[in-house]
Each structure stands twice: as C-alpha cells, then as structure tokens.
Amino acid sequence: MRDAILPNEKIRRVSKVNVSAILFLSIPLLLYFVFYLLPALTSVVLSFTKWDGLTAPVFVGFQNFSKIFRDPRFLNSVLVNIKVVVISLFTQLPLALLLAYLLVKQLKGTAFFRAVLFIPQMLSLVAVGVLWSLIYHPTNGPLAKIFEEMGMESINWLGSTSISLLSLMVTTTWVYFGFHMVLQIAGMSSIPQELYDSAKLDTDNSLEVFFRVTLPLLRETLLISTVMIISGSFSHLIGLFWVMTRGGPMQSTELISIYIYKSAFSAHQFGYSSAMTVIMVAFIAAIVGVVVWQFSKVRIEF
Amino acid sequence: MFYERNHLKFLCLIFLSTLLLSACGSEQTEPVAEVSEEPPAEVTIEFWDYTNPGVYEPWWEEFIASYESSHPGVTIERTGFAEKDYDNKLRTAMAAGSEPDIMFVISGSAVVDFASSGKIAPLDDLVDQSIWVSSLLGAFGYEGEFYAVPLGPMASPMWYDEALFEEHGVVPPETWDDLLGLCKFFNEVDITPLSLAGIERWEVMMYYDYLQHQYGGYDLLDKAARGEGADFTDEAFVKAGNRLQELFANDCFPEQFMGLDQDQMTAAFFNGEAAMELIGPWVVGMAKDMAPEDFKIRAFRFPALPDAIAGTEKDLEGGVNGFAISASCEHPDIAADFLNAFGKANEDFVNEIGYLPTIPGVTVEDPVMAEVAAFMSEANVMFTWADRRLPSAIVDDYLNSLVSLAAGEMTPEEFGLTMTDVVEEKLE
User: Do the Cβ atoms of A54 and B113 come closer than 8 Å?
Assistant: First the structure.
C-alpha cells in the first residue's frame, strides 16, 4: 500500500467507493426497512390504539398497557415464559457442554454423532410438534404402550396441567441442544492446547481443568448460547407449543407469544396484542442486556 | 479494465433492482372490469371458499363450468382455502381492501362484524329470497336484513356407533337419565361412552351449548354476552355447569381427553373405542372416507334434561355455512345471480356432497342425513355454536373457562363471575 496519496487521487477513490456502496446497500436496506422496521414501528403505533382489523383504529393512549398489567392471563404467560427460560438454560447448556466435551476430539465416530445430534434443530418446528404429539399420545403413543407393557398407569403427557410444560421442554431440549453443542465445540476447539498442557502440570483432576480452564474460556460462546436461548424462548417456541398444546391444558403452556397470537387472531384485538408485543420486546431486551453486562464484567487472562 | 468493473457493478445493480421490483409486482390484484357504455363484456367474479376433501372440489368445478358456459363473458374464479388459514386471510384482505366478491362465511358474530362495518352487502334486494328456507336466511340476519345465502346448515346432533349398539343390545338415550345409565353400561364393558377432545376446546363447548340452551332458552347467551338484561351468573348457566360436571363425575368421557385433538376424538369413535360422539355433520363424510367398512354411523338428539324449558329439547345446535357478497363488489347483480343458481342446484349438491338441504322440498337420499334433516324440521330453532356466536373478543376466555369447568378447576358459580368480568373488560 502506498504511503503518499496525491490529493486528487484520494478524493476520486473515496467518492467512487461511497456511491457504489450506497447503491448496493440500498436494496437490502430497503428490504430491511419494509419488512422489519416498518412493521415494528407500525406495531408500536398500533399499541396505542384499539383496532379490530375491520373498522378504523381508535386512539386510546396508554389504556392497553394499563390493562395488560392487570390481566391475569398475561401475568400467567409471563410466568410460563420465565419457567421456560430457566428450564431451557439449566437443561440445554449443561447437556450441550457435556456432549461438546465428549465430542470435541476428532476421533472416529465423533463426526457422526455430532451430525446426528445437530439434525433435530434443522427440522421444521411444526413437523417436530406433530411427531412428538404422536409420541405423547396418552393411549396409542409409544410411551403409553411402553407404560402399558410395564403395567404402569399411562401418563397424560400433554393433557395434564402439571406435566405438560415439562413434556414440551423435553421436546424443546431435543430440538435445540445439538445446536448449542456444536457452538460449544467450536468454542472449545479454539482453546489453545498449551493452556491444557500447563494445567496438567498443576493438577491431574480433569474436572478441575474443565471448570478452571475450559469453562472460563468458553465465556463468549456461552454468552451466545445464553442469549439465543433467552430470546428464542420468547419468539421461536410459539410454533412448537401451538402445534402440541395450543397453549396447553388451562394455559399451563401458554407463552406470551401464544397469548399475543390468540389476542390478535382469534379475539381480533390488534391494539392490545401489539401492546403486549412491545412489552415482550422490552422484557427480552432488558434480560439480554443484564446477561451481556454480567458476562462482560468478568475478565479472564492467563 | 476500470471501465469494465464499473460496467459490471452497474449491471448487477440493475439485475438486483429488477428482481426486487418483480417480487413487489407479483401480488394478486383485484381484476377491474372494463368500464364502457354498453353492458360489460368481461366480468370476473372472485370467489373464496373452504376447500373440502372428496367430491366437493370437482362438484364446484363442474358447476362453475356450466354456469360460465350459460353466461358468456362471466368468469368465476374460485379459490379453496384450508379452514385454519381462511379467517385470517379474509380479514387481512378486508383490511387491505382486496376482499373477494363472493366469500364463504359462517353464521354468527363474524357476519355481524362484517355487516356492521359495511364490508358485506345486504342481500334482501339482490338475491331471490324465495329460493331458500327463510330461517336459514335469518341465520345471517343483522338489523332486519340478511347478509349471506346458505351453503349448508351444520346441524350437530349426537352420533352413535350403530353396529356397536346392536352388538350390545342397547339403544340411543332419549332422556338425561338414559344417558347416564348408558354411560355406566359402556364403562362396565370397557368402552368409552362419549368420545371427547380438549385441545381445541370446542368439543367440550358443544355439550355445554345444549345444556345452557335447554335451561336458558334461545336468547340468554346473546344477552349475557352483551351484558344486557342477563349475565353469566344467571341460574341457567349454573345449572348447565352442574350438568356438565355431572357427566365427568359419571366417567362419561375419556380420562385423558385434555391431551387429545379433534382427529383423535373422531378416530376413537370410528374404531370402536368410544360409543358416541357430539360433533358436526361433517363426521358423516369423514366416516365414509376414514372409518372401517363395517362402521355404521347414526344420529340421535341430545338427551332431554328433566328440568329443561319446554320445547328446547328438540332444538339442534349448529352454525350455517354461507356465502356473502362484498360491499365493494363491482358486479353484485352477477354475483347474486350466481348465488341464485347455486341455491337452485341445492338438491344435486345435497345428494352429491352429503350436506343438509337449504331449499324446501329436497329429497335427501342418504338415510343418515335424511334423519338429521328430519330432526331439523322438527326443531324450533337451530342455534349457532357459542364459539361462532359470541363476539370474538370473549370466545377464547369462554372456551378456556369451560375447560376449567370441565376439569373441575372452576365451579359453575366461578364460571359465571369470571365470564361476567371478561364481558366487562373486553367488550366495553
């Protein structure tokens, strides 16, 4: 690269790059604006109205927001979502870490297992929902038949308020943990071998090595996984939960996103559901913000 | 070389732009008829309907083809939609102003919403009223006018497995006590008396519909839903709730119903796991397609409660499916003429497709459907299912509360209080 640039050349080069870049960026930016920003802004505007989709929207100020916080069904859905997030974090992350640890080495067969465990999250959530609904069928499903063979009473996996959420979480974990496993494998592979070698000088205990060397250095990939799990619990799971329980026996599996959907498309209350969406997004942003902040406080240097 | 690079970038940009613009342009727009002094030469009528399995689609193709050939210049563009997509597609189209000329509707609050917001046209002066049974036109009434013509009444009596009943030497129940006795009998022989599902929730609602009708009469539900002159704490609702819980207390339903959906409910009925089912008349068509060869389905009336309002025990529940004309249709006279022609073809439709008749004087060939048609003619009233009848803002809460009631998580009194609150909160 040349150190000295003649004044004319510099001006010419800069202006050329800018114009092309802007023109090329304009198309994706336009798409982004039309399909993401504009609907999001419309949603925020709608949250201050009452609208049934047929007649004109009516401005109601903050009425929707105040109603939401008094709505026992909304509060229930927040609780359900929090349960989902907590259970997800405490099942998917440990499982992903365990399997990543086992499969990080490039031995014979590990590639096969990695692929097989990764496949579930590539499937359509609706297909997964239908499949697992059949598995959970209380009389004709394979689980029910196994229980029958063993002489035990069949469990109503999706129809019982106490366990249907847990049944759905089993399915959710089955879908996603492979993805997080692959993420953690990527993270683990980037840890330099010298650190392990020097750790071996200090201790023989592989558990200690894991907790004091591997885990801290996986901070970034763990952060990514955590943020994805949190935001995914609010936005992605609606497909799965809807197909399997529609919000579940007596709202025991009704996520915020499911209540929003029902409020919009069966109750035709678009203003109210938009307000719920705004609150949900604010909620996710707050949680993720706190998580990122906590992760960034820890500095690891070796 | 400098020139070539720029040239390439420019071409890329043009290419991407045309891709983008062509994606925008592929939206289906409403065809506009030619405007001229003479009667329009080419008219296209857009027609949205449910798609149904079996011979439904071919029947429509044939009917439309014959209509078009006897009405040169008119094209009927029919699109069939899956049931679960239709509602949202229609409302989205209405919000965008691109609704079809003729649209499928179900009687109840949706028709009231569309009529009151001026999206569909009153048909009193457009179609030939004399073609149809007037009570079916009345199902689509709003403020003295009617807004759709019937496609088929979805009368929903109860259904029983005739072969199974014959095998066990029992007959369908006529009174409430008969029903409880029959449930006890079937439990003893390890057959679920009444098939049920809980996921969609309307399955439970259909039982409650009959119960609250027999105790409350025709108007009560509408009044309670509007909070005018009655509310859900009315004694009729409480009595109905008690009867519903009585069915559960007597083990009439499958224990695991909460985790089942409508297909699983009907499958259990078809394969002999359950003896009876309460569902709409589409089950007859489903039985022809899916039930085993020796399955014989027959209808019976919902049993009469001992303390019901006189006359209500002959009534049936069920919505009426119909077709409405959009208020923005450019050729409503042609759309109306098409609907008149469809009405006149009802006897053929009934016997080909297996729907119930909408015009007087039809001979129903299928014996099962003929029986249901006879029930209809003996009924004073056919009342729409609650989930179509109630304003959409409270339907979800109503269904949820019914399921809680069914599961014993709510008492009938609590049901009344909850629903009264819901009406206040959501329908001010």
Answer: yes
Write the DSSP symbol of residue A137: -
φ/ψ of residue B128, rounded to 5: -90, 95
Percentage of chain A exceeding pLDDT 90? 57
List CB contacts (< 8 A) between B261 and chain A.
133
What rounded mean pLDDT belongs to chain B? 90
Residues of chain A positioned with their CB less than 8 A from the CB of B328: none
Q: Tell me, what's the ipTM?
A: 0.79
pLDDT score of B2 more than 70: no
> Is B200 within 8 Å of A164 when comparing Cβ atoms?
no
Taking residue B219's Cβ as centre, other Cβ atoms within 10 Å add up to: 11
What is the number of other CB atoms lying within 10 angstroms of the CB of residue B133?
A: 19
The pLDDT, as a whole number, for residue B29 is 47
The string over A6-37, giving b where at least 16 C-beta atoms fall within 10 Å of a residue's C-beta and e elsewhere, is: eeeeeeeeeeeeeeeeeeeeeeeeeeeeeeee
The answer to whether residue B188 scores a pLDDT higher than 80 is: yes
Mutate: best of A30, A137, A139, partner B, most B CBs <10 A: A139
Domains of chain B: 45-154+318-383 (3.40.190.10), 158-317+391-426 (3.40.190.10)
Band the pLDDT of B250: cuts 50, 70, 90. Answer: very high
Which of B3, B116, B260 to substitute to test the interface with A, most A CBs within 10 Å?
Answer: B260
Per-residue pLDDT for A270 more than 90?
yes
Q: What is the pLDDT of residue A9?
A: 58
How many other CB atoms sit within 10 Å of the CB of residue B109?
Answer: 22
In chain A, which residues have their Cβ closer than 8 Å to the Cβ of B117?
54-55
Please say whether the structural domain A71-297 has been given the CATH code 1.10.3720.10: yes
